[in-house]
């Protein structure tokens, strides 16, 4: 496992380095523009929680002379990225009448402290930044918003639950449940965690607690499982949903269908529990890739909607965003945006694919069905509609169980969360399986629609148990003449698997409890 972790960390280093080079470059343009006098830009030190120095920059509207106050937007940086990250968007916001303060979160780059992973000091830092901005910029204490990508999104949500001054939030590619993000199905998301670990090591100063969490996470030490879960729940906005609702901030959530760091499902559950003004957006792409072009000043729907959200809920502009359907989806296949009044309206009808018969597979070998590679696969899907593929007829049935639907005579618009219900019998007390749903064309080539892992421990060998598993939420159009196929195997490079050597898994469909895949479909 140690060699595997080193390889994953090496890959993470490469991905992070490329991102940092690109992001460092984007910060130069707004600095040059600021010198023309269109907006004011200055770099400052802000005293965070406990006196920790936070490196920050402030962009103010052109002509701001203290005669009036402006709405304030605070932008915490993403994991591993420098404070230049938001400079382009900060200037755009300042040009429309906002004071914008971006700051490097504690533990990263030049800011002091250690990486706490959105712990209490990070939440307190956000409030200290607001305090500083209200005291040192022409900002309005009654009109405070927060936004961010990735790490900045999670911190913004947590801060809104703890600071009543925050009236609006745009959380882009963030998390609601940290454990459900990187440990869904009781399975470690190896590539995602390795990327976070590698990026934190390269660009910051991980705390001793964080280093121990990663060590225990990768070591698969079950004696530490509850401790890790408790650590994650403390850092999850979902934990503070009652406080967030009581404070009443207007919450906009945006994510990519293929987000391999923070999969889409956990945002869905969180959105449904919000009681204040809210909006949920999903687009093709991986973690933060849908909004990435906006950091370079290119046209970007995510950032456009972010600006509209603040314009309405901080400035009071009647721009119509509050009257639009609050759930906005863009299919991975084609077409424009689809609006829905709520999540349950996304896929109101379902079709079940029967998983009849009994199938036994061996473990420890990758069958060829995989969820892809972090970032790369979902970016290809986003830009070229090329998701991970597999030849379904050629998948070895020794290692993979396969079921297929009938051939569809009309297009099937999959919308929402596919669910698997089956009965499993293992030959060992622990095991891991990964379920994949494929769109299968006439030649048997399968394009990945969704997937999800599941791990069990403490089961009695030879004794059947029921399994209900949610695959990652998606929006995908299956063409007429194609089939859907469910494939289950036991190894995927995205995840850490827990199959003892020589273990087998049997999937059955008892008469009293038949097995099936339930596929949510859009009304046509």
Automatic annotation (TrEMBL):
Q: Which UniProt keywords apply?
A: Hydrolase, Signal
- Ranges for domain Xaa-Pro dipeptidyl-peptidase C-terminal come to 307-517
- Chain segments carrying region Disordered: 502-524
Enumerate the Gene3D superfamilies for this protein.
alpha/beta hydrolase, Galactose-binding domain-like
Recorded superkingdom: Bacteria
Q: Which Pfam families match?
A: Peptidase_S15, PepX_C
InterPro entries, per database record: AB_hydrolase_fold, CocE/Ser_esterase, FrsA_esterase, Galactose-bd-like_sf, TAT_signal, Xaa-Pro-like_dom, Xaa-Pro_dipept_C
An MF annotation (GO) of this entry: carboxylic ester hydrolase activity
Q: Which residues form the signal peptide?
A: 1-34
Member of which family?
A: Belongs to the AB hydrolase superfamily.
NCBIfam families cross-referenced by the UniProt entry: CocE_NonD
Protein name, UniProt field: Xaa-Pro dipeptidyl-peptidase C-terminal domain-containing protein
Q: Which organism is it from?
A: Streptomyces albiflavescens
